[in-house]
Amino acid sequence: MPEEVLFKTEERQTRAAIADALSTAAEEIKSGSVHLESASEDRDVAIPEEPRFEVELERLTDSETGEQRYELEYEIRWTK
């Protein structure tokens, strides 16, 4: 099944701003509805009572430069 991106935003932010965004998201998740907003779009999504939750930390190494990049991902999944 092909993936359809319904919302995406990516920008550099301070740790404090990221923590604030995650705190807001946590409160919205508790309430069952999350509001997603960027400069060009916004979307509301209902979160079911018991979705699947995944936390993943990855280290990727650039094959040309040897530079390492880390990704910390929090993912919530559910089916309809």
Describe this structure in words.
It comes from Halorientalis brevis. It holds the Pfam family Amphi-Trp. InterPro entries: Amphi-Trp_dom. Residues 1-79 form the Amphi-Trp domain. This is Amphi-Trp domain-containing protein. By secondary structure, the chain is α+β, with helices and mostly antiparallel strands. It has one domain. It is 21% helix and 38% strand. The chain contains one helix and four strands. It has one helix at residues 15-31, and strands at 33-37, 42-46, 52-61, 68-77. The protein has a two-stranded antiparallel ribbon with strand order 1-2. Strand 1 and strand 2 form a beta hairpin. The longest helix has 17 residues, at 15-31. It is globular. The two termini are 15 Å apart. The mean pLDDT is 95.
Distance between the termini: 15 Å
Strand content: 35-45%
Radius of gyration: 15 Å
Largest sheet geometry: 2 strands, antiparallel
Tags for this model:
80 residues; alpha+beta; two-stranded antiparallel ribbon; 1 helix; Amphi-Trp domain-containing protein; Amphi-Trp_dom
Please write out the topology.
Elements: H1 15-31, E1 33-37, E2 42-46, E3 52-61, E4 68-77
Antiparallel strand pairs: 1-2, 3-4
Gist?
By secondary structure, this protein is α+β, with helices and mostly antiparallel strands. The chain has one helix spanning 15-31, and strands spanning 33-37, 42-46, 52-61, 68-77. It has a two-stranded antiparallel ribbon. A two-stranded antiparallel ribbon has the order 3-4.
